[in-house]
């Protein structure tokens, strides 16, 4: 099964520092909310689509 989501823990495993990984997830969530995906407007949600993280990086 191909997983299209990425979490902050996976970003940390890829070599990002914990604070940087959390910032990336936060920016991705803000971008998704601005596009109308209100589901991502949650503080504790730390999983976002990989495509959005790709846009940020």
Helix coverage percent: 40-55%
Strand order within the widest sheet? 1-2
Q: What count of helical segments does DSSP give?
A: 3
SSE sequence, one letter per element: EHHEH
Major sheet details: 2 strands, antiparallel
InterPro entries: DUF3173
Organism: human gut metagenome
Pfam families: DUF3173 (PF11372)
Protein name: DUF3173 domain-containing protein
How would you describe what is shown here?
This protein is mainly alpha-helical. The protein has one domain (5-56). The chain is built from three helices and two strands. The protein has helices spanning 8-13, 18-34, 50-56, and strands at 5-7, 47-49. A two-stranded antiparallel sheet has the order 1-2. The relative contact order is 0.23. It holds the Pfam family DUF3173. This is DUF3173 domain-containing protein. InterPro entries: DUF3173 (IPR021512). It comes from human gut metagenome.
């Amino acid at each position: 099964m191909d997983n299209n989501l990425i979490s902050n823990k996976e970003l940390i495993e890829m070599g990002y520092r914990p604070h940087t990984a959390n910032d990336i997830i936060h920016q991705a969530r803000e971008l998704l909310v601005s596009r109308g995906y209100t589901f991502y407007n949650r503080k504790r949600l730390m999983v976002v689509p990989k495509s959005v993280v790709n846009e940020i990086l």
